[in-house]
Amino acid sequence: MKQTFKVKNVKCGGCAGTLKKELLKEFGEIEVNLETDPREITLDVDNDKIEALKLKLRSLGYPLVTDELSTLQSIGATAKSFVSCAIGKIEKS
User: Fold this and answer.
1) pLDDT by residue (tens digit) across 40-85?
2) Cα–Cα distance measured from residue 23 to residue 14, given in angstroms and rounded to the nearest whole number
3) What are the respective helix, strand and coil percentages of the chain, to the nearest 5?
4) What's the whole-number mean pLDDT along residues 3-30?
5) Measuring CA to CA, how many Å separate 27 from each of 42, 44, 78?
6) Exposed e or buried b for every residue in 45-75, given b needs 16+ CB within 10 A?
C-alpha cells in the first residue's frame, strides 16, 4: 500500500538521491517531495515493514517527524544527514 511519511533533515536533491538509493533494495522505488516542509517520502510499504523503514531512515540521519528522539539522538541524526547529503551530491555528479 502506498504511504506517505514526513521526514526530518531532508534538505536537497543530494538528500533525496541518498534516500532513493539506500531504500531501493529493501523498500523499492520511493518519491521524495522537496516542495513540502517537512519533506515527504512516498513508497509502497506494508504496515509490517514500517518499523524497519523507521530504523533505516534513522540510520541515514532522516528520522520520521513522529519519531521521539532524545537530544543526543537528534543531534546524531542531523550529523548523519549532512554526511548522507554530501554522499548523495557526490554520487549525483
Assistant:
1) 999 999 999 999 999 999 999 999 999 888 888 888 888 888 787 7
2) 14
3) 55, 20, 25
4) 94
5) 11, 7, 23
6) beeeeeeebbebbbebbbbbeeeeeeeeeee
* In the block, residue with C-alpha cell 514526513: 6
Angle at 69 between CA 83 and CA 80, to 5 degrees: 5
Rounded Cα–Cα distance for residues 20 and 69 (Å): 23
Grid coordinates in use for 60? 541515514
User: Which domains does the chain carry?
Assistant: 2-92 (3.30.70.100)
Average per-residue pLDDT for the chain: 90
Least Cα distance to 16 among 25, 7, 27 occurs for: 7
The reported pLDDT for the residue numbered 40 is 97
The x, y and z cell numbers of residue 91, run together, are: 554520487
